Amino acid sequence: MKSLIRKILKENDWDWMEEASSTISGEELGKFIKDNHLTQIPDHIKHVEGNLSLYKTNIKSLGNLESVGGWLDLYKTKIKSLGNLQSVGGWLDLEEGTIEDLGNLQSVGGYLNLHNTQIEDLGNLQSVGGDLYLYNSQIEDLGNLETVGGSLNLEGTPISKKYSEQEIRNMVNVGDEVFL
Known about the structure:
Layout: H1 2-11, H2 15-19, E1 23-25, H3 26-36, E2 47-49, E3 52-53, E4 67-68, E5 72-73, E6 87-88, E7 92-93, E8 107-108, E9 112-113, E10 127-128, E11 132-133, E12 147-148, E13 152-153, H4 158-162, H5 165-171, E14 173-174, E15 178-179
Parallel strand pairs: 1-2, 2-4, 3-5, 4-6, 5-7, 6-8, 7-9, 8-10, 9-11, 10-12, 11-13, 12-14, 13-15
């Protein structure tokens, strides 16, 4: 696989993508995206094994990506929607990005950071294994959210003015503190 990546990086050619598997390691994909200044994950990539850091990249689309086995770092990216992404095994950081829509996202195994984003609705998201950081976001609706394993931070959000802590807990099973 390393020789294939070296060939790819030397040729800066998309032809390898048509022959490659729909699963790739996060380290290899992240390096390829950064080195080639890509704005989109190639469409045939559906699964990433391990962690994927796209921090400080030009990424604007996750293409047809459905799952990331480890964490996914999208801090300060220009992604507006997570599209087909359904699950992240570790944490997911979208802080200070342009995210507007979580797309098909249903679960995050670790924490989910949406601090200082324009997100208004959690859509299809059902569970977050760790803390859910929504402070200073535009969140108005928790969507289909059922469970937060850690704390839920709603400070400085429209929803924090709309509901009491008990009302939030009646909507969502929160394992730790609720901050309003």
